[in-house]
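Table 4 source record.
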Amino acid sequence: MRHVHDIVEQTAGTDIPIVITGGTSAGKGLVAQTVHVLSARRDGPFVSVNCADVSPELLEGELFGQERNLLIGDKIGRFEHAHGGTLFLDEIGVMSSGLQGKLLRFLEDGHVARVGSRSPIAVDVRVLAATSEDLERAVSAGRFRRDLYYRLDVVRIAVPPRFDQPPNNPASSDWRGEHQPRPAHSAKAGEPESGHRVPGAERRQRQDDPLRSKGLDRNAALADTPATPATTSLKEISRKAAQAAERTAIRQALGETRGNRRRAARLLKISYRALSYKLKDASLDQP
């Protein structure tokens, strides 16, 4: 649990996608809410969708919205509801291949298209995903897109069993006491569609910042990122920060393992294939 705690603190202040793994009722939703509350998006909406609770035929409209037609008016999707905040996609492994493609396009360009429309809509959303199945196995079986897997699995948080039962887990109890999230909007199928904000989510005082309490500054933690002109979008800044952080971590891991990629992948807690993909993507695969 202390390891989970550290990863959340280190990544909450970025817009890096996170995959949260763990069994049913392990507390993946609580981890996602905590990431949101500790982030700069804390005053924005936190929208949660359990993909397994929505039929495959309706999930696309639920997430991306529906263009006006003869039967219904415009239906705003969960991505638009989460604008300026965080979208938590639970049980992401049940998505169809076509829907996975639309999610991948959003992660690449920050635009969504409602069902029945060809006009893209720009939305500012951080995506957190969770799954109780092995996505690597799903990729190997052809059930989950490899390119989407690599795009999402930048940071992985593995939640230990019984995380949501603090009386049996002192570490979990400490976690809850320190980082209990404020109530947040959880949008599920059938609920009224409204862009709720997180109630009473006032900005925390600087002395309450978990990084600052350790003598660190949240901005200083990303000091290795090159200065970016103010005209650049926040999404682009976050993307570059994530890439710079990845390159640094990969170089350090390869240095510690003297270039052994399999050992480096284990240190980074990603698969060997994922490391090879990231090395190539960052032009670090040369001898």
